[in-house]
Amino acid sequence: MIGPKTAKHAVRRTALSHPAIDATHAESAKRKVLSAYDDPGSDEEITRRTFMANCTLALSGVIGLGLAIPIVGSLIPKGNAGGGTWSPLSADEWKKLQAATDTPVKLNFTLKSKDAYLPEETNDQFVWGIKTTEDRMRKARPDLFSEAPKANLPYPVVTLGFAIFSPICPHLGCRYNYDAGSKKFLCPCHGSQYTFEGAHVAGPAPRGLDPLPLREQKGQAEVTWIRYQDSTADRIVVSYTA
Ligand code: FES
After folding, report:
1. Cβ(140)–Cβ(195) below 8 Å
2. Ligand 1 centre from 194 Cα, in Å?
3. How many Å is the maximal CA-CA distance in the chain?
4. Ligand 1 pocket at CB < 6 A
5. How many Å lie between the centroid of ligand 1 and the Cα of residue 177?
6. pLDDT tens digits for 63-94?
7. Which CATH superfamily hosts domain 86-239?
8. Contacts of 188 (CB under 8 A, 6+ apart)
9. Could you tell me the distance, in angstroms and rounded to a whole number, from the CA of residue 188 to the centre of ligand 1?
10. What are the start and end residues of each CATH 2.102.10.10 domain in the chain?
11. Which atom of ligand 1 is nearest to 190's Cα?
12. Does pTM top 0.70 for this prediction?
């Protein structure tokens, strides 16, 4: 005979093992066991794959940006000196420049150059300096004061009453000299000629001479070397090393 307590348990067991409920439990268990990976092509699997692909793309973007910023940053000229390292002129060379009148002065100095992550290097170099004014340069060299984006220099053309020229001919990179007789800078390689202010007046060079940054720090004059691309009318920075 079944007592009231036993009968209650029997009813509950009977209810739990009803065929409809058993089928629902089996379906639910099956759903739990099957993951998206077990069901390729399902909506869930495709959504998960798309999510993973987007995560990978986003991560690649972050890594790429992290690498790109320092690389691009090293190529952009800075406003203080066009982006290069300042090299001091000796007291004698500075005196020579200060004593200049209507003849350009060849200024020898030790060029300090530092390229990205490489250690600083030094080598002997020279630049040309002239005594001039901004008004005079504006008249003689309108190309240096043009509003065209690529013509603008990120530093003054005239500093302390002087302009400094790179000794590199903008045609194909030879070194030019100053000819006191004709009062012109002459390039021996292909005959390009430039006025006292560096304006191009003859020969195949595509532009005038390239000014370089000059500044005075604690009584010492300093210059920055910039190598511009040859054979183009635009001034495009190639490097800050010789
Ligand atoms: S390199 Fe100076 S004219 Fe050609």
Report:
1. yes
2. 11
3. 137
4. 169, 171-174, 187, 189-192, 203-205
5. 11
6. 555 554 444 444 434 444 556 789 999 999 99
7. Rieske [2Fe-2S] iron-sulphur domain (2.102.10.10)
8. 174, 176, 177
9. 7
10. 86-239
11. 3
12. no
